[in-house]
Each structure stands twice: as structure tokens, then as C-alpha cells.
Amino acid sequence: MKRIVMCMIEALLAVVMIGAVKPVGGSDFLSEGGANYSATAHVMVTLPITHRDVRYSVNVYSQDNPSDLLLGVNYLLETEDSTGKKSFDAYFDGNYFSFSGDKMREYHCKQDSLPFIDRKVKGRVINGVHKSGIVSVLVPAVINSEIAAIARDSANKIDVVEDSIVEGKRVAVMKVEEFVQGTPARYMELIADAESRLPVSYTMLTSPGSVGEQLIEVKWENRNEQMIIDEKSLIERFPSVFATYRTSNYGADELVGRKLPIFSLPSLSGERYIWKGYFNEPTMLVFLREGDGVNDETIIAVKKAASDVPMVTEIVWIFMGKNVGVVMDSMNGHPDDYTTLFNGERFAVQCGITSMPTVVLVDRNGVVESVSIGYSPKLKADLMQRVINMR
Fold it and tell me: How far apart (Å, rounded) are the C-alpha atoms in residues 345 and 321?
């Protein structure tokens, strides 16, 4: 099997050469698609030790982000394997999200920069989390970054043919041989359109001749589809994933100083509550999940804080569930002079709120002043102080 895989690599490297082969520095071989890039990538991973192929279809989107110093682009990868299992990876502005199976991971450089830093282990560069896994062979900017890192080591070899013919098409071809401590670590062949430099195919053999040998083959179908890549768009694209699997409160913490997202929810009064971007008075939005053990204490603390501060302060109760009867039961014993809404799960996710209870204090202009996550005996005093500080 090892000999078969090596023969496959040799055959793939035997392209028809028109131009001369020349060594290069390795960076910017691929075009990153200008402001926006999109493609469908067909990926096959071969593990010779198991005699099995794993196939994926991946929608690839990336867009320039010159202000981002970590990568310079935003990207979204939507992956579906041969069994129909779906996952995604996304990066933008120092934030990386990855969902697979029943787990979502998220990393934020402002919160912890360490996972984003490339490191060297036993002579080989290990990418930061936002450039790892399947990302490293699908996003043009990441591939360029990977090749540039390889080129910095003089022990490695990179050759480029600027004008070649592969399957009747004019292409540019890059061949890479990477060594770690004198041992072959990876063989790569990257083919791009000769004029646009958009990727056509990519073949990579890792750990050749070892038990962990792996062959990855990628073929791209380039498209022209634009995509906004930010947290709001991700939540709108994958609402059930964020609602079910998100465990980080990073998004809620980031609300402070920002305008509250526009929202519309059903109310217990029977009328739909539509927030238009402002409040008549400072307002506490209280996010609650029916049945939580500290709901009663939270409701009492919030109402007491609102009544004891020397200014008019409104309250909007927002319950996660859709069952009106259960929501009414949760408010039982708490005569309500304020607004009670339900079916708020998606809005909570949009705000980055994953833990209940959470109290979001908003000024008249809709700008978030503070976020209080969880209940404690100090909640009333903390809320009163925060409202007073708004004056």
C-alpha cells in the first residue's frame, strides 16, 4: 500500500511542463479571490493503514480583511461528509468557531491569544487554531501562509512552474517537499489556474512511509458568491447550533458599549413586542429560563432594584420557552407591572447569552451599559449601583 501511494504522488507530480521550473519563496502562489472568494471543494482523505477513503464536500467562503493582523481574511467552511454529517469552521477578526458532532468550540484572541499563536514542535510548525485542521488545505490565504512557513526553512524544497498544461488546461504548478530533522514530512502539489491563480487542485501526502501516512486530495469548483462573515451572520445561518451547543458567554460580555440588536417577540399580553431602537427610560432586560431554581430570587432582586433607585427604570422579562402556560407559572406570585416576553431563545443567542439568569442594562438610546450573568445575593445592590452610575 505504501508503494501504491508513493506511485500516486509520483504520477501526480509528472505534469507536462512548458515553462521552466524555478525555486520560489513560497508565499502568495494562490490568489485569495480579491474582496470575496467562494468555491465548492471536493476532498478525499485516504488512510492507507485502514484501506479506507473519507470524502467531504465543503462550501468555502473567504473575504479580505486587511485590518486583521492574524490572518488578513475572514472565512467560513460548511462541510458535509459522505454520511450526511455536517459541521462548520469560521474565522473573523480574531474569533474562531468550530462545530462538529455535538460540540461547538470557540476561541477569541481578545480573551486568550495563546491558541492563535503558531508554535514549533520537534522542528515542525504547528498552526494556530484558526489555521488548523481542514482549514489549512481549503482556504487560499491559509495555504499561502503554510507554504511561506515551509519556505523559511532552507532544508525544504519548493519549485514552481508558472505555465504548464494539466488535463488540457493552462495552469501554474507548485511542488513542495518538507523535511523535519532530515526525514521527509510532507509532499505537496498545488495547481492553480495560470491566469487567475485561483486554486484548481491540491494533493498532500503526510508522514510518507510511516504508520500515520495520510493522503489528502482536493479539487475546487470556483464560484462567484458573496458571503458576510461575522458573528451575527453565523448565528442567523446556524441558529439551532448556537442555541443548543454554545456554552461561552463571550458574546454577552462584548455587548457592553454596543447598541442592542433590534428584536421582536410575543408577549403574555397577546400583543407582539417590537423594539425599535430606543427606550423611554433606562431598561433592564432579564433573560430567564423557565424552571431554573433561582428565578424567584432573581425576579425579586430585579424588581426591588428598579423600585429603589431614584429614577424611573423599566423591566422587560424575556423567557426562553414557547409555552405560555409555563411562562405564566414562572411569574406566579410576582405581580407584574412590566413587560413579559417569551420564545426568546434565538434573541438570547444573538446576544451571546448562554447562561440564565442574565440581566442586560440598557440606556434610553439602546446602548448596553452592563451585563450581569447569574444570580447572587448582591444582584439587587449591583443593579442599583449600575443604574445610578448611568446618570
Answer: 7
Q: Is the dihedral of CA 352, 353, 354, 355 positive or negative?
A: positive
Which of 114-123, 316-325, 328-337 is the least confident region? 328-337
Greater confidence (362 vs 153) lies with: 362
All residues at 6 or more sequence positions from 40 whose CB lies less than 8 Å from its CB, including other chains? 57, 58, 59, 60, 220, 221, 223
Which DSSP string do the residues of 281-340 spell out, in sequence order? S-EEEEEE-TT-TTHHHHHHHHHHHHHHSSS--EEEEEES-S-HHHHHHHHTTS---SEE
Q: Nine-digit cell at 76?
A: 467560513
Q: Which of 201, 72, 231 is CA-nearest to residue 137?
A: 201
Residue 73 CB partners (closer than 8 Å, separation 6+): 32, 62, 63, 64, 65, 139, 141
Give the burial string for 148-181 (b: 16+ CB within 10 Å, else e): ebbbeeeebebebbeebebeeeebbbbbbbbbbe
Q: What is residue 70's DSSP assignment? A: S
Q: Is 341 helix (H, G, I), strand (E, B) or coil?
A: strand
Residue 32 contacts residue 62 (beta carbons within 8 Å): yes
Nearest to 40 by CA among 55, 54, 56, 58: 58
User: Strands 339-341, 314-319: parallel, antiparallel or unpaired by DSSP?
Assistant: parallel
333 pLDDT band, cuts 50/70/90, is low
Does the predicted TM-score (pTM) go above 0.85?
no
Local structure of 12: helix, strand or coil: helix
DSSP state of 270: S
Dist. CA 131–CA 146, nearest whole Å = 9
163 pLDDT higher than 80: yes
Distance in angstroms (rounded) separating the CA atoms of residues 387 and 302:
11
Question: How far is residue 306's CA from residue 318's CA, in Å, rounded to a whole number?
Answer: 16
Q: Among 244-253, 277-286, 344-353, whose mean pLDDT is lowest? A: 244-253
- In tens, the pLDDT along 347-377 reads 988 888 888 899 999 999 999 999 998 888 9
Biggest CA pair distance of the chain: 83
Average pLDDT over residues 78-82: 93
